[in-house]
Amino acid sequence: MLFVSVITVLQDCYGVPYVPEGQWLCRRCQMSPSTPVSCVLCPSSHGAFKQTVDNNWAHVVCALWLNEVHFANSVFMEPIDGVANSLRRRCKLRCIVCKKKVGACLQCSKVLLLPLL
């Protein structure tokens, strides 16, 4: 069975500085076309993936949302680095959407300001 993703990405949002001639494939389809993958930062197996420095896969958007995660090469937006640190810091957090402790959960960025008495 061949797993082929049908995704649309913006060049600048996926790290494609120039359009190659011929057929373009996302990095996941180039590297692991017959192997199902999932994001190490979230439980999803769909979307635009890039490899991590330790040869796992993560969504580009997950990498963008997490402060401690970054792209080793910012032009090509790969590989994704800082994943292990992010998972260590966030593994005990519970997702407010799915209520599970899976991946690197985000915390709310809102700050509650209490009046001084």
Automatic annotation (TrEMBL):
Keywords: Metal-binding, Zinc, Zinc-finger. The keyword Zinc-finger applies. Gene3D superfamilies: Zinc/RING finger domain, C3HC4 (zinc finger) (3.30.40.10). GO terms for molecular function: zinc ion binding. The keyword Lyase does not apply. One of its GO terms (biological process) is regulation of transcription by RNA polymerase II. Residues 36-117 form the PHD-type domain. This is PHD-type domain-containing protein. It comes from Gongylonema pulchrum. The lineage of its organism: Eukaryota, Metazoa, Ecdysozoa, Nematoda, Chromadorea.
